[in-house]
Amino acid sequence: MSKKKLTSAFGKPVGNDISSETAGAKGPTLMNDAHLMEKLAHFDRERIPERVVHAKGAGAYGYFEVTADVSKYTKAAFLSEVGKKTEVVARFSTVGGEKGSADSERDPRGFAVKFYTEEGNYDMVGNNTPVFFIRDAMKFPDFIHTQKRHPATNCKDPDMFWDFLSLTPESIHQVTVLFSDRGTPATYRNMNGYSSHTYKWYNEKGEYFWVQYHFKTDQGISNFTGEEADAMRGKDPDHATRDLYESIEKGDYPSWTLEMQILTPEQAEKLRWDIFDITKVWPHSEVPPITVGKLVLNRNPVNYFAEIEQAAFSPANFVPGITASPDKMLQGRLFSYHDTHIHRLGPNYHLIPVNRPKNSPEMSYQRDAFMRVDDGGGSGPNYWPNSFGGPAPDESANEPPLPIEGQATRHAYELVDDDFVQPGNLYRDVMTEQDRANLVRNIVGHLGGAQKRIQLRQTALFYKADKDYGTRVAQGLGLDVGEVEKLAAMTQEERAAATA
Ligand code: NDP
């Protein structure tokens, strides 16, 4: 038997942890049994709200090492010299499913990295896809609802899924990535991570650059086909979680090479694509990526709940030298991640050890609130300005100014090109014939569950991206290709009316 003594939550030794205290051998249980009451009451409160998105995930610790001099682009201290290493925690996840859902579901994968830098925590909160379904945060709750359960049946619903997407043509690029086999990565180790958004880097002189992050897997890309993913869902719904843990446990540490695409503001003006539109990539031929570092994961969490379930990432966590771009999807995320963590973990979630800025301790005037578990600022002043030696703002932490002009109103994205060029390029120029065949099969298997009018509306979008793409999906679904072609020639409003 263990020599460690069992205690209550408050440290009182426990004499018996098997039998409740009852009135007689067969009598009712006594309220006097404080140990039982405490044990049950804590159990009753074990669950915290799961994330509304990215609920199912796995994570590990490691480090990021700089391998190229990027100091002319950013003054971020953790990127300041070649060879510099920074501790990280990373979390990978599916997006739409609940905490108990399968790792092999067709879904984008979250790819979040928290860098514990000497200037505070920096979070890079990306996905395994370089683009996204929508480009304005206003649409995000609606989009996510369509990926969740139907209000009446409580089942996933192909009508909801495809109705929204077919009425949201900018989604076509991400839909094409998602329904390729990249939508079902074989493991978390075998996928890339992308910032997807454009961010701003700025240097000591105040010069700024627009950048995108690409963490390229050193394990190589490996995906399941649709059939393999379906089989894995039944065989081991936690296969990717298990794979990450077991590889690290046996010393086979996964790593990613960080490549950056970097543009000066002048270069960005000349680029054909809107760099703040997350449904577009920057073609590599126009903006060649440069290698800047290596991410290695080499330590498993000891306690999943404490260290990974409670790990809270926010794209608003920047350090000097890195900041946001005006990407409208990113702008919404800057608010929403912090807000959801306050809801899930409480206003002092930054004190949970995995979230604590351990290499740049908090020195703020924020006080109190639930679960303030440190000295809460002690006896120091709780207001600014003060003349009692409290922490003072440092102007050098300010971002360089960004010139903005225009009218404050609800602007739609001004398209310099339509939304179908890049998915068409992906289908024609990047995918192999096998990739295209799998893509069409995966789409037909899913879209086939939606109403015919929705199938037609969505297939017209595939047709607009590429005639062969739309034709093959139409044939797979048994649709009239002529009807699809006619719908593809209409404006989005006309098409919506014709398929209402
Ligand atoms: P490139 O040929 O230079 O790059 C193509 C990229 O596509 C590679 O990074 C490759 O990633 C990735 N890729 C291969 N298969 C798929 C797939 N099924 N789904 C998503 N990505 C895939 O071309 P461009 O830069 O001109 O871009 C062409 C298209 O490639 C884009 O429209 C976009 O859909 C896709 N793409 C582009 C990226 C970019 O940042 N430019 C990034 C990722 C995809 P890998 O090297 O890891 O195999």
Q: What's this model, at a glance?
A:
Helix content is 30%, strand content 15%.
* First and last CA, distance: 70 Å
CATH architecture of the largest domain: Beta Barrel
CATH superfamily annotation of the largest domain: Catalase core domain
How many domains, in number, for the residues? 3
Classified by CATH, the class of the largest domain is Mainly Beta
Name the helix and strand elements from N-terminus to C-terminus, one letter apiece.
Answer: HEEEEHHHEEEHHEHEHEHHHHHHH
What's the overall geometry? globular
Query: What is the mean pLDDT?
Result: 97
Q: Given the structure, what is the number of helices?
A: 15
CATH fold annotation of the largest domain? Catalase HpII,  Chain A, domain 1
What binds here, in terms of ligands, is: NADPH dihydro-nicotinamide-adenine-dinucleotide phosphate
Category from helices, strands and their pairing: alpha+beta
The largest β sheet comes out as:
10 strands, antiparallel
Please report the total strand number as a whole number. 10
Fraction of helical residues = 25-40%
Strand content: 5-15%
Radius of gyration: 26 Å
